[in-house]
Design goal:
Blueprint: E1 18-21, E2 28-29, E3 32-33, H1 37-46, E4 50-55, H2 62-71, E5 81-83, H3 84-92, E6 101-105, H4 108-116, E7 120-122, E8 131-134, H5 142-151, E9 163-165, E10 171-174, E11 177-180, H6 182-193, E12 198-199, H7 206-215, E13 220-224, H8 227-236, E14 240-244, H9 251-255, E15 265-267, E16 280-283, E17 286-289, E18 292-297, E19 300-305, H10 310-324
Parallel strand pairs: 1-4, 1-13, 4-5, 6-7, 6-8, 8-9, 9-12, 13-14, 14-15
Antiparallel strand pairs: 2-3, 10-11, 16-17, 17-18, 18-19
Helix pairs in contact: 5-6
Length: 348
């Protein structure tokens, strides 16, 4: 402290050796990079932080993902990319014998990993597959889903074969908006056969552990855009997490987040990884973040001061609700608290 001035609070990146990032909604949406994402990630690497990427999207190979990221100006190899099909094959080794035939519902990203793991790929239930593995691909349609349903008709308690889903994300961000994700396709098969898949990707821990093993991380920081997969998975893996508001989940979801889906940091975009993260100060019923102050008054969550940044008002509101021990439906919440100027395309 110099001349009585408090030192600036740490940034989210302080002390971090490996930054692990989700892709869809964090680095890109569809084919294009999100604003400030690439510059921020390159800035992190220039500062000595290693990058790794964790994706539930099973439609592409780790090589094609690395090439896509490289085209934006990032320095990425396939070894830096951990995919949900890779996590699925890790699970599959414990479920069926080596060199078994697997019924694959999905695209190239899944097929490549199945073959790399030594399994034989089939698209037909008539080939008596030892298991079904299902992942997202834009071309997946009724015919592939029907083959999975035929293969999974026998319940597991009656000797039915295993069913592994790479992930169950309900949605996937695209350049034109939010589209159905693999969870909707898995749900279609579930509706037909009345059984649940074993899930390999986020929010399950295995995919995070694989990323830590590959990168040698001692103090990793994970950044994602979804509470129910990214943040929940990072918490399950005991990893510090950042929610970035460039993808799926919005301020309303942040305020309502259950305990196992609450991030350590909330940022507008990746530039704020380098900003001092304001301290949350609680005094009685009041919570302050920066110049934003909110107060719990019975069932009302009141805004005492909006401050000069909407992100700090959101952070203060979230902290107040999360620390109260009450769910969001126990409060009357002013609309200003969950205003959403953060979505990509609304900012100048």
């Amino acid at each position: 402290m110099i001349f009585g001035r408090k030192p600036a609070p740490p940034t989210p990146l302080d002390g971090v050796d490996v930054l692990l990032a989700d892709l869809d909604g964090v680095v890109y949406a569809g084919p294009g990079a999100l604003p400030h994402a690439v510059d921020s990630l390159n800035r992190a690497t220039a500062g000595g932080v290693r990058l790794g990427f964790i994706t539930n999207n099973a439609s592409r190979t780790d090589v094609s993902v690395a090439e896509h990221l490289t085209s934006f100006g990032l320095t990425v190899t396939a070894e830096d990319v951990v995919t949900s099909p890779q996590a699925a094959m890790r699970l599959m080794r414990d479920l069926v014998p080596a060199a078994s035939t697997l019924l694959v519902v999905g695209g190239e990203g899944l097929v490549v990993e199945v073959e790399k793991a030594g399994y034989t790929v089939t698209r037909s239930a008539d080939d008596s597959p030892a298991a079904v593995v299902q992942g997202f691909a834009p071309e997946v349609g009724w015919a592939q889903l029907a083959e999975a349903a035929y293969a999974l008709a026998t319940p597991p308690e009656e000797g039915g074969i295993p069913w592994v889903a790479t992930n169950t994300d309900w949605t996937i961000p695209q350049a034109r908006g939010i589209a159905p994700g693999n969870g909707t396709l898995v749900s279609a098969v579930h509706t037909a056969v009345g059984r649940l898949a074993t899930v390999a990707g986020k929010p399950e821990r295995a995919i995070f552990d694989e990323a830590v093993t590959r990168t040698g991380a001692r103090a990793p920081l994970f950044i994602g855009d979804r509470l129910d997969t990214d943040i929940q998975g990072a918490r399950a893996a005991e990893m510090t997490s950042v929610l970035v508001l460039t993808g799926i989940d919005r301020p309303k979801q942040v305020l309502a987040a259950p305990k196992n889906q609450r991030p350590d940091y909330i940022v507008e975009d990746l530039r704020q990884l380098f900003e001092p993260y304001p301290e949350t100060i609680v005094k009685g019923d009041r919570t302050r973040v920066g110049d934003a102050v909110v107060e719990i008054d019975g069932v009302d969550l009141r805004i005492v001061s909006e401050g000069d940044r909407q992100i700090d008002l959101l952070r203060a509101g979230a902290a107040a609700i999360w620390n109260s021990g009450r769910a969001i439906f126990g409060f009357r919440v002013p609309e200003k608290l969950y205003a959403d100027p953060f979505r990509v395309g609304r900012r100048g």
